[in-house]
Amino acid sequence: MSNYDVLIIGGGPGGYNAAIRAGQLGLKVACIEGSDTLGGTCLNVGCMPSKALLHASELYEAATGGEFVTLGIEVKPTLNLAQMMKQKDESVTALTKGIEFLFRKNKVEWIKGWGRLNGPGKVSVSLADGSVRELQAKDIVIATGSQPTPLPGVTIDNQRILDSTGALSLPEVPKHLVVIGAGVIGLELGSVWRRLGSNVTVVEYLDRICPGLDDETAKTLQRTLSKQGMGFKLATKVSAANVADAGVTLDVQPAAGGAVEQLEADYVLVAIGRRPYTAGLGLESVGLVTDKRGMLDNQQLRSSVPGIWIIGDVTSGPMLAHKAEEEAIVCIERIAGHAAEVNYGTIPGVIYTKPEVATVGKTEEQLKAEGRAYKVGKFPFSANSRAKINHEGEGFVKVLADERTDQILGVHIIGPSAGELIGEYCVAMEFSASSEDIALICHPHPTRSEALRQAAMSVQGRAMQA
Ligand SMILES: Cc1cc2nc3c(=O)[nH]c(=O)nc-3n(C[C@H](O)[C@H](O)[C@H](O)COP(=O)(O)OP(=O)(O)OC[C@H]3O[C@@H](n4cnc5c(N)ncnc54)[C@H](O)[C@@H]3O)c2cc1C
């Protein structure tokens, strides 16, 4: 029986960041990861490969779709899909090796196997050679992440009916790709394949895209994606799928009920969400139970069993890599006896479509539901000189501030580099800034960041450039 201060089950952004922080704090730590590579969903089949394809396909579309011609660049690009996939895979490998390096640097032991709780303070690991290693630790962190939610009647085979992992490695460009689910993953991967030449139809059960996103921002995103050629069938449910050699026939009907119609596609991507992953984890050995969604409950990252902690996608909150990372740091600080807190109110969310969408804090709908009086400041990118000169004038920055105190309560950006721009408002909100604080800060010209200041000025009704 090997003894540790901390054992971490799962080597994704939750698990590897927890392991690195524990190593930095001088704790004897091991990270148990059963896959061949570290990095979890994010590095292997999530954030990173999807961003690699979004980047490459964005450039391809710029070269083929008229943007280069507008800029006076005339080329005749051809798509080398195999090379596009290869460079993605190489980048992913480099990133996962990077985590191995960080483990060595911080004295984290990677135990390659599948971990299972085996009573309080104990973990059994099934190793690749079939043997079992018994470990024990004062503290155990569950960071086992999530997996795609299946859709009854539409069985994923990753041949014709894909989950996000399958959609990241298609060997050909679909003629017609149907994406089921208008959430972040569906819209990002739908964008990749549309840019590479597919007809893409997004089928969504709700009557809107991206539930939870600020309404006005979601409507603007849908309008923009529609203009780009992405089709939407909202308030529509998929009830069955029939797979043949060359494609799939989907039965779809209005969500409220009504006539069934058929939708033909050569590939279908099921992207209706993700669910926590706890299969085979031995929860029963310590008396832990999940809720109906399979989620493990936590109180300040502690489970109901002393010494067992829960972080990342496997527990409540947004399923985002940086949320898992934040919880990882705070969890380990607490294990080490330090005071630490996750501020869930300042965790940003980004959709890496073109234009990007980035948000932090409350939406208008949430503020209305809370009955909180707020002011709105908005600034369009069409009035931002840098965006305009780059022909990227679509979208806006919207700042929501408390009507009485002017404290910033939420920020919603749709536009170029929104994912980078939102960081400024995350910092501002972390410091409880007012919109006036941002309005008083000099921003470099010409940058898109000037739109952040102008939107803050607009809260006081004094935007100068629109
Ligand atoms: C296509 C896609 C795109 C995404 N894009 C983004 C994005 O742009 N930005 C963003 O913030 N988030 C994104 N996400 C979400 C992000 O990947 C997750 O939020 C993040 O990976 C969660 O980290 P985690 O550590 O909780 O879990 P995971 O990354 O899922 O890691 C869990 C790990 O635990 C291992 N494991 C599970 N059970 C055991 C066991 N019993 N023993 C040993 N090992 C085990 C698994 O093999 C896995 O490696 C995306 C997800 C997908 C699918």
Count of separate structural domains = 3
The distinct ligands, each listed once, are: flavin-adenine dinucleotide
Name of the CATH superfamily of the largest domain: FAD/NAD(P)-binding domain
> Major sheet: order of its strands?
1-2-3-4-5
Globally, the shape reads globular
Beta percentage is 25-35%
Pfam family, one: Pyr_redox_dim
EC number: 1.8.1.4
Cofactor: FAD
Family: Belongs to the class-I pyridine nucleotide-disulfide oxidoreductase family.
Fill in the keyword field for this structure:
466 residues; alpha/beta; FAD/NAD(P)-binding domain; 3 domains; five-stranded mixed β-barrel; five-stranded parallel sheet; 21 strands; 32% helix; binds flavin-adenine dinucleotide
Explain this structure.
It is a single chain. The chain is an alpha/beta fold and about 475 residues long. It has three domains: about 1-150 and about 275-340, 3-Layer(bba) Sandwich (FAD/NAD(P)-binding domain), CATH 3.50.50.60; about 160-270, FAD/NAD(P)-binding domain, CATH 3.50.50.60; about 345-460, FAD/NAD-linked reductase, C-terminal dimerisation domain (Enolase-like, domain 1, 2-Layer Sandwich), CATH 3.30.390.30. It is about 30% helix and about 25% strand. The protein has helices at about 15-25, 40-45, 45-65, 65-70, 80-105, 165, 185-195, 215-225, 320-335, 365-370, 385-390, 420-430, 435-440, 450-460, and strands at about 1-10, 30-35, 110-115, 120-125, 130-140, 145-150, 160, 175-180, 200-205, 230-235, 235-245, 250-255, 260-265, 265-270, 275, 310, 350, 355-360, 375-380, 395-400, 410-415. The strands form five sheets. A five-stranded mixed barrel has the order 1-2-3-4-5. A five-stranded parallel sheet has the order 7-14-8-9-10. β20 and β21 (about 410-415) form a beta hairpin. α3 runs parallel beside α7 (about 185-195). The longest helix is centred in the first third of the chain and has 25 residues, at about 80-105. The structure holds flavin-adenine dinucleotide.
